[in-house]
Amino acid sequence: MKKTITFLLLLAIVQIQAQEFIPLWTKGKMPNSKGLVIKDSINNERVMQVGMPGIHAFFTSNQENKGAAVLIIPGGGYHHLSYNISGFQLAKWFNTIGINAFVLTHRLPISPDLKEREKAPLQDAERAMRIIRKNAVAWKIDTNKIGVMGCSAGGHLAASLGTIKDDFAVVGDEFDAYSFQPNFMILISPVIDMGVLGHKASTENLLGPNPSAELLKKYSLQFQVSSYTPPTFMAHAFDDKTVSPKNSLLFYNALLENKIPSSLHIFNQGAHAIALRNNPGSTNIWTAICEQWLMEINILKN
Question: Any signal peptide, and if so, which residues (predicted)?
Fold first, then answer.
């Protein structure tokens, strides 16, 4: 009984920090599900299990609203979601610069409920983008100014949204008509490669212990960049021992080859999953650089 009360209190705290929680799928209509009852589980500011995927909405005030939005995907190695440090805190910052933010709680590929583990996170991300676009008029958002941001493995899922064209989220309802393609991407300490340069745990959690060569290449996103991919901002640290900065280099090189206007910053310090604040040295100015970049690509106006 005590454990149940504690869990409910934690869930209530998560809900309170956002203005609204919007489920992605109607009951009984969630694709790629075996129909098992999966309970949401939270521990130490980490979502450990997702039964009801959705988005936590953080809206700006009407006066501060710049008409832009960003879907934020927390990191966690596809094992959990660090919803606070790489989700809610970032959403609050985006609000300060006039951008509406939506933090994604997606199904984890290690869930026993999934039929195809690797598709579930991207299914939920695609659906989230469609929900934002469908409600754009009501939320005073320009449908040409909706981007995605992700940290670490969340960066991999964000980059998947901007490179993989497969529609995994089509379910035959009114949301299918809306595009899930982001207009810009912000990737912080992202996992890109599913091979030797990637993050082994993220690869195994997403693709399983023995993925085929075809699956490894499909989700090694440096191979998926094309004219479909939107302008991208990337930040990584030279001393990242968890996800090599070579991941960002691989992706940036593919962006260059495809002539995608983008910005890459490899900071001297910062280790893994550069935070919003309290970073060492010059790494602490990444948010200021990112804001200026959003002005350069006309998501924000001076």
Answer: 1-18
